[in-house]
Design goal:
The structure holds two protein chains of two kinds.
Chain A (H helix, E strand, L loop, with lengths): L2 H56 L7 H23 L6 H5 L5 E4 L3 E9 L4 H4 L11 E5 L3 E7 L6 E6 L4 E8 L2 E8 L4 E4 L6 E4 L2 E2 L3 E2 L2 E7 L6 E2 L5 E13 L2 E5 L4 E5 L2 E4 L6 H4 E2 L1 H19 L8 E2 L38 H28 L13 H9 L2 E10 L4 E9 L12 E4 L3 E4 L5 H4 L6 E4 L6 E8 L6 E8 L5 E2 L18 H9 L6 H19 L7 H9 L2
Parallel strand pairs in A: 23-27
Antiparallel strand pairs in A: 1-2, 1-20, 2-3, 2-4, 4-5, 4-19, 5-6, 6-7, 8-9, 9-10, 11-18, 12-14, 13-14, 14-15, 15-16, 16-17, 20-21, 22-23, 22-24, 25-26
Helix pairs in contact in A: 1-2, 6-11, 10-11
Chain B lengths: L1 H51 L1 E3 H12 L5 E11 L1 H9 L8 E6 H9 L4 E3 L5 E8 L4 H10 L10 E7 L6
Antiparallel strand pairs in B: 1-4, 2-3, 2-5, 5-6
Chain lengths: ~575, ~170
Amino acid sequence: MKIQGLAIIAIIIILPMSIILNSYSTNQIKTLDLQIQYDSKLKNATYDAIKAFQLNMSNSSTSDLADSKMRDIKASINTFYNSLSNHFNMYGYGKDVLQNYVPAIVYTLYDGYYIYSSYNNTLDKDDTFDENATYKDGENIYGLKPYIYYSCRYKPNLNSDFTIIYSLDSYITIQGTLNGEPINKSGYLLSNVTREGSPGNYTYKYNNIPITAESDLSQNVYVEGDLSGNIVNGNNQQVGSIKSYPCRKINGVKYYSDGTNVFSIINDKRYNQSDVNIENITTNTNAIKYYEDAYEFTNFVKNNLNNLKVTDAVDSNGKKYTDLGNDNPYYDYGNIFGELTSGDKSIEDENSNFNGHRLDVIKNSIESNLMVAIANYNKVSTSEVNFQMPKLEDTEWEQITQNVSMITFLQGLNIGGKIYNGHSIISNNVNEDFVSEDSIYISDGSEYHRITENNLSNIIDINNAKGYFNVDFERRTGTVSYRSQNEDKTYSKTIYYYPKGELASYNSIIDANSNSSSGGKSISEYVKELANGGVTTNDGKLAQLYYTALGRERYGMYRVTNKLEEVQEILMKE
Amino acid sequence: MSDTLITVIAIALAAVLMFVFPLMTMSDRTDDVAQLTVETATTEFVDNIRSTGKITKTDYDSFVEAITSTGNTYNVEMQVDVKDSNLGKKVSQAQSDKIGENTSYSIYTSQIENALDSPSHTYYCKEGDIVSASVKNTNQTISQQLKNFFYSVTGNDSYTIAAQHAGVVTANGK
């Protein structure tokens, strides 16, 4: 054969091979490229949704109530879909289409979580024939499923059968029957609270730092109709004012005092609270109440549930988890509340039995319900994709169990030869649902700092400093509606203000690289070390500010389990 | 005479088709794979910072290791736009119904690398900061060399493998 012939054969062999290889590798590259892009888009949309949630929550005076919270979550979900469809628009996917590829969205909150997914609508018999009903019987609707608590059922003996609801911190609720008696108690578990003094005159210490009442806790607020201020509408008429008043938060409501009256604000309007004593607003004893309640509740648990073991956990049918063998979701830590009596570890420590088991309960609860929600979605979705719950990594669970978060799933989109299966988790650092350890900032009136800032106790004016909740440094809005003078139209103008107007520290808030906790210590460990010096040292004073603020804000939270009479008693007694 | 000429041309053509063409194709594919590796690694690196709120030396090292495993050398540039909300607050105090804008200042590669070499081996970001990383190859890949040889398209700064990814940090680093 001539050499030309050989060349032609070589071309015939090599050319198709290289073309095929070329198109194969190009396809693979495109697929991976799309996967990366989709991951980023999903993350961005989730972040947008969390931001919407934050904004709505922090600008609503009722955001901690369940129906208001559900409204905020639904708004946040709309933001998620809008953002996602915006990101996907150039690929031709709209919101309606994308909804078929989102099997579930989870909002993990303080003591439970919502799953947004599709469900089959079931109407009452009477409604079935109502032609005007918005949704028909048997129709598949997207919506929030009922709130699910991070709970676990225990049957330690024949006379006891109760459920413990865990939360993102050491707050627990015990409901059921304990030793034949009905029980419904909730509170914080804290190992290191000590009580001194005599009945009626007790003082409390946490990690040997005395907790005292606070005064001069003021915050700015916009009050519509207060014409002494300088807020004007578009017609240059005075409509309200932004002023600083002494403030105390109880049961999720902020009470302000103007010296003669106590009032609260709902939708920018002032409501006088004639029953409330001014003294109880200007002197804030929230922190003392927090440690007092925690002391009593912890003692109750110590005396009654000290022997409760992880192996006492049963499923909803009353069957012991230990019978499941390898499928048992709970690691056997032994006594759940063992740290309350043993001396070496505290219950608040990250590596305590209690925390280990608490995380197991949260994880198992979310995992099992989410798995069902996603699997059920197969019956509803028109996208002919087999939806499956992806396995979340340990670091992701850590993120979920540390703060209020949002988990989104996007599955089944064709990315050229492969099916996309992605999820995204974003934490919500600024929320009024949970006072986390890193949500307390220290301010001496000029700048606010993180407690972990290097040498903070000597930088700030420690004797005039206080701890504040991070949400209070976020911008708030108020709205003024007015009619135009020339046209017959109603306009609205947005008023912006900061409850706490201090500037952020460049050393710890804006640039977080001057913090001394960089060694991997948790904030609670760091503060405990500060507290070791005693309250006479600057470090000890700093720890005192932190513990007081943490207690004050936690006590001020709205909780479903709060007892209204106790709350009213605090505000009204002389 | 004409036969000899045709043979010479045929041999030259065959050499091009049998050696140079496959070589160029394969080296192009290698570049494609390298491009993909670099793009994936960059996106993962940045997205990881966005989720965790921090740049750790371990993450940075494994990122650099991943991209250099393609056999090329790269120039990695990082930038963090640190959100500064203080200026916005100051403006709002001057006129109570107006709000100021958040501004940001930038931290560049060498500053971040300094932080990575500090005892904590970490650069901490906060929610709202914008982090970006871009990677370009600094050596000439085989594909580039061949192309330069045949087409004589060259320039000192030409690069074929480049990736860039950026996004808002979604968590406070701790």
